Amino acid sequence: MKAFSRLYSELDQTTRTNEKVNAMANYFMRTNAQDSIWAVALLTGRRPKRPIRTSDLKLWAAELARIPYWLFEDSYDVVGDLAETISLLIPLRKTEQDKPFSEVMNEIIDIQTKSENEKKEWLFSYWSEFLQDELFVFNKLITGSFRVGVSQQLVYKAIAKAYDLDDKVVTHKLMGNWLPQNTNLKELLSDESSSFDDSKPYPFYLAYQLDLPFTDLGNISEWQLERKYDGIRGQIIVRNQQVHTWSRGEELMTDKFIEFDILKTILPHGTVVDGEVLPFKDGKIQSFNEMQKRIGRKNVSKKTLTDVPLCMMCYDLLEHNGEDIRTKPLHERRALLEEVITKAKTDLLKLSPVLSPDSWDKVDTLRTESKQLGCEGLMLKHKDSVYETGRRRGKWWKWKVDPYTVDAVLIYAQSGHGRRANLYTDYTFAIWDKKELVPFTKAYSGLTDKELIEVDTWIKKNTIEKFGPVRSVRAELVFEIAFEGINASPRHKSGIALRFPRILRWRKDKNKEEINTKEDLMQLLNSV
Q: Residue 514: which CATH number?
């Protein structure tokens, strides 16, 4: 536990990529395989469920700290982070005990099913065992707020460095439906580990946003152009008469996308298709809002299947008749994909159309058509490109349409996480609905570190009320919010919801009287 706590501190205290990779590589080289696999799971987002209710955590922490509950709540308001608040308030015991990290994590899994009294007794025993750093990390784990600023790809690079492997190989071996409590890192990295898992997907190839002039790309005839569809990027895997559907976020979606199960009788063994899962009804692609109706349901009813049927817009073929064909050039993979889709004869699989402009001058026109077609922009793929791992620059580009924007005023703020736990960085914004300011979206990114500090200072001086960790502030600061889409939403007071909202810039030149209105956004909603 001490070693993982040190790793967390090292990662949290630097923004330098090489330092993060070196810290993780050193951890993996010095730590046993059981502890390492739990570290990989947490660093790549495979967190266990929160084992204890937040209300119980606060109540029991106040009891152990021997302070009134109201004082704990006030302290929480000031600190803004529950894990840190508990760590600061409960008494520490000087101890040299160091439990194996995997043992701690397995107990966090096991305690989820225990009684309230058993949970309290277990929690008190752990709270009395750790020093400050381990206590803070442990609290992050049990409050469900464990986050650290490393990407999945950085974790894989660190493992590759520690085990002297190719990072592409590591990425592939660590994909799939593994559980940290049932395996260890050496087993997953061994040559035998991937051959028996029929569900294992391939690492996704991700495109860079186009930032080069067309003249640098060469002849347009060397490039394959497609629409960038707005759905769930995924892989459909058919092996040994079983279907497995994975999202790009490495979430197994088979049970949610159950209509694809029939493909086990249509596609041959050893077929892996890469594409975009889309809501498709009456011959048309539906909005992403319809897609969310499928994602948000644990059980898919017959009505849902009828109301929101799905298809996959197929981009690429990664495995053909059991052979990994990712190293074949794109034009060969495309020919095989067309063959597979033609033979399948099913509306569940649709071939992504290839666009054929005869000059680069016409490409921008195709891009600007995207919003009207419900797409995000264009994909530009070199016809000789192999299917890479992760985000690689040079052979695949995405050229997205310009985002929608709206001017809004800040009305609520909440503390961030990790390095930003002591800053108010999570914001709620409002627009005018006649003469009333109505909250309509939240945003967490887009400002520079200098701007964040400036806004944080302003928030602390202009707080009106406190609601737990949230502060309401005077409606003065105006920001331009960028977003990718807009949908009607009865769950929000404004009646609308934005897709991928983020702060584009701080509009110091505007006041709240000049921000957008609900009517503006309703007009936009009705036009898309």
A: 2.40.50.140
**CA 442/CA 475 separation, integer angstroms:** 15
Same domain for 360 and 442, yes or no, is: no
For residue 396, give the H/E element and its range: strand 396-400
Could you give the 3-state DSSP secondary structure of residue 8?
A: helix
**SS3 category, 341:** helix
Q: How far apart are CA 74 and CA 78, in angstroms?
A: 6
Tens digit of each residue's pLDDT (9 = 90 or more) over 154-198: 999 999 999 999 988 899 888 888 889 888 899 888 876 554 578
- Contacts of residue 34, defined as CB under 8 A and 6 or more positions apart, other chains included, come to 100, 102, 184
Q: Which residues pair with 229 in a beta bridge?
A: 375
Active site residues: 228
Is residue 471 exposed (0-12), middle (13-18) or buried (19+ Cβ within 10 Å)?
A: buried
Q: Give the integer Cα–Cα distance in Å for 55 and 76.
A: 12
pLDDT tens-place string over residues 218-239: 999 999 999 999 899 999 999 9
The amino acid that residue 306 corresponds to is T
Between strands 436-443 and 424-433, the pairing is antiparallel
pTM score, whole prediction: 0.76
Q: For the residues 125-129, what does the mean pLDDT come to? A: 86
Give the burial string for 78-98 (b: 16+ CB within 10 Å, else e): ebbbbbbbbbebbeeeeeeee
Confidence check: pLDDT of 418 > 60: no
Residue pointed to by tokens 């029991």: 60
Say how many Å lie between the first and final Cα of the chain, rounded.
52
Distances (CA, A) of 398 to 174, 207, 303, 499: 26, 6, 36, 18
**C-alpha Rg value of the chain to the nearest Å:** 25
Q: Which amino acid is at 256?
A: K
Hey, what are 261's tokens? Answer: 């199960």
- Tell me: the pLDDT tens digits for 318-328? 999 999 999 99
Enclosing domain of residue 283: 205-400
Who's near 502: CB < 8 A, 6+ residues apart? 443, 444, 445, 446, 481, 482, 483
Residue that terminates a domain, selected from 338, 373, 400: 400
Q: Are residues 262 and 378 located together in one domain of the fold?
A: yes
User: Is the Cβ–Cβ distance between 243 and 261 less than 8 Å?
Assistant: yes
Place of tokens 């060397």: 222
